[in-house]
Each structure stands twice: as C-alpha cells, then as structure tokens.
Amino acid sequence: MNGNEVVLDANILLYLFSGDPTVTEFLEGKDGYISVITELEVIGYLKINDHDLLFIKGFLSGCTIIEINKDIKDIYISLRRNYNLKLGDAAAAATAIYLKFPFMSADKDFNKVKELDFALYSR
C-alpha cells in the first residue's frame, strides 16, 4: 500500500476500537478516509455503550468523512450490479475507487472487485 491515505471499512474500525494492535500500528501516521455510510454503520453498531460511542466519535472527527456524490453513486451502482455487494460494502468500495486510494477491510469478498486497490486484513 503506497501513500498515507487509506479508506477504511467498518470492520477495520471495529477492530481498531477493540484494541487490535496490528490495526493500530498500521494506521499510525495514515490519513483515514471513511464513507459516510461506514460512519453510520459504526456509530449505529448495537454493541457499543455510550462511553465507547464518545471515543468512536472522537476518532471519527480526525478522519475525513466522504459524502455521497454523483460519481460515487455511479460507481456504487456498478459495484452492486456487477459484484452483488451489500449497501455498506458497495458504498465504502465506491468511495475508495472514487478517491483512488487503497481500501482496507477484513472482508474477502472485496478480492473480486477488480477496480479496487484492496488490502485484506486477516487476524
């Protein structure tokens, strides 16, 4: 993965928030970019308490949240149709493709998305 920019999937953020040292070390010095849909997935995660929610919101405030624009919508539609990705996955991948930044996830399904500069994280 080249450069300091990386688009993060929700599962990577959840690993980070649970204290995963590998994710923490990898992201040190990186500029995190997150789809607004990923942001909603993470802050709406049912297994977090109010204290954790404050921590998560604080972390997210240091990331660049990417809103959905027409170009991302077009990429999203293509990904949904061609790869049958779920809404959140397609939105996150479309954001990475639009930005031309690497995308990090623990979800192997992204391996099939040939347009994506994908980094698979495995624990």
Provide structural commentary.
- With 123 residues, the protein is of the alpha/beta class.
- Helices cover 50% and strands 15% of the residues.
- The protein has six helices and five strands; from the N terminus they run βααβααβααββ.
- The protein has helices at 10-17, 21-27, 36-43, 50-61, 70-83, 87-99, and strands spanning 5-8, 31-35, 64-66, 103-105, 118-120.
- Strands 3-2-1-4-5 form a five-stranded parallel β-sheet.
- The two termini are 18 Å apart.
Keywords:
123 residues; alpha/beta; Rossmann fold; 5-stranded parallel β-sheet; 6 helices; 5 strands; globular
* CATH domain fold name: Rossmann fold
CATH architecture: 3-Layer(aba) Sandwich
- State the strand order across the main sheet: 3-2-1-4-5
- Overall number of strands: 5
Low-confidence residue ranges = none
Largest sheet: 5 strands, parallel
Tally of distinct domains? 1
SS summary, helix count: 6
Distance between the termini: 18 Å
Reading off the top of the CATH hierarchy, the class is best stated as Alpha Beta
The CATH homologous superfamily corresponds to 5'-nuclease
Task: State the helicity in percent bands.
Answer: 40-55%
Question: SSE string, helix = H, strand = E?
Answer: EHHEHHEHHEE
Kindly state the mean pLDDT as a whole number? 94
* Alpha-carbon Rg, integer: 14 Å
What sort of overall outline do the alpha carbons produce when their principal axes are compared?
A: globular
Strand content: 5-15%
What structural class do the secondary elements suggest?
A: alpha/beta
